[in-house]
Amino acid sequence: MEQVQTALATAIPLGGYAIAQVLGRRAGASRAERHQELPGDQIVAHPQLVTDHAITIEAPPEAVWPWLTQLGWHRGGFYTPHWIDRLLFPANQPSLERLDAGLTRCLRPGDVIPDGPPGTAWYVVRQADSPRTLVLHSVTHVPAAWQRAVGAAIDWTWCFQLTLAPGGSTRLHLRARGRTEPWLLTAAYLAAIPPADLIMAMGMLHGLRKCVQRQRRTPSVQGGRQK
Predict the structure, then answer these.
(1) What pLDDT score was predicted for residue 218?
(2) CA angle, corner 84, sides to 82 and 87, nearest 5?
(3) Model-level pTM?
(4) Which top CATH class is 2-222?
């Protein structure tokens, strides 16, 4: 009996981790979406990890797009659950649950979207085709100390693809493609990112859907968040 309990104690966490690895790479995305070629795929030519997540939002792409234009640290946030914001990003402000006229903007290639205090981490807009495609690229999401110590590096893209779906809704597909070095960072990246993405990426998509659909019911655009 003790051996059975020991085996279960080992198998259950391992099974849960294996499921998180699978779902963290493709939760919400159909097989067709996972095999679809998307804008920005060529930026990271040989990714070690590709994740695809998708969700349907009961609003047209034109109503979803403004929420993407206010993404960023000390901007609209990333629409992740507030408990994640408080636990993992206490220096950031909580993600907005409304559109802020002072933050929504016309995105253009070369624009910077901050993901931390100045000089730490940020994304560069590589493609912005309203209201269909937003491609973000980062090589900054590795601490400078790691870069100096072991030559750590990351090359990473996010593609937000908005497609008009039946009934005037939007299919929002988020693809991440990443490559890291050296091998030790790669091992940690492959071990940690898919389970984390199951929470973070899906949390962002669900949070975004909640915000968009609530805004559609009670339209109000406000200003005033301090950058």
Answers:
(1) 77
(2) 110
(3) 0.90
(4) alpha beta
